Amino acid sequence: MSQLVVSGVGKRYGRTTILEAVDLEVGRGEVVALTGENGAGKTTLMRICAGLLKADVGTVRVGGPIGYCPQAPGLFELLTADDHLVMFGRGSGLGRAESLRRGNAVLEEFGYPLHERAVTRDLSGGTRQKLNLALALLTDPTVLLLDEPYQGFDRGTYVNFWDHCEVWRQAGKSVVVVTHMLAELERVDRVVELPAHPSRSHGIR
Asked: Is 88 part of a structural domain of the chain?
């Protein structure tokens, strides 16, 4: 059963067509790699699926909670990791203690330095991205939309991320990963490539 169904989605900015008649289905326990050249609309499609951007045409149906990890961390410069966990958790109906328990467990899995109490602006790019990913996973979502979530990761954490994709698959989650790392495509169930400049209807299954 598909937990993410995209039907005929199109998006334009002015005279520029970013997405045209895109269809995408992702089943339970399936990891899909979304690839394509710069400008193909991968991030736009992810934002539409996450409900952050409205498609001009088409529909998106999601069968459960969404966890969205944007390519650029959506973090607040003067807040600590704990501050972020509590704030994002409360936005999803979690109490402070539960937000910290869940969030710190995920951060620890990805090697985040839990002993540090630095504000976000003082963290390295890779450390910021670990927090970004933890926020996407905080509520144990059914559908994961991950836009190059490993930016700035060291080699060990990068491999750890792909190992987690297998864990999420076994847990029955639907996972879409935007990636340019072709060497890792054997770790996914399917590869979906968006054309750089769509000029005709196309379906993606």
From this structure: no
Sign of the dihedral through C-alpha 184, 85, 55, 60: positive
**Per-residue pLDDT in tens (0 to 9) along the chain, 205 residues:** 789 999 999 999 999 999 999 999 999 999 999 999 888 999 999 999 999 999 999 999 999 999 999 988 889 999 999 999 999 999 999 999 999 999 999 999 999 998 888 999 999 999 999 999 999 999 999 999 999 999 899 999 999 999 999 999 999 999 999 998 777 788 999 999 998 754 434 444 4
Residue 31 maps to which CATH number? 3.40.50.300
Does the global pTM surpass 0.85?
Answer: yes
- Domain holding 2, by residue range, is 1-64+142-205
> Could you tell me if 2 and 181 are in contact, meaning their C-beta atoms sit under 8 angstroms apart?
no
Beta pairing partners, 25: 5
Number of domains in the chain: 1
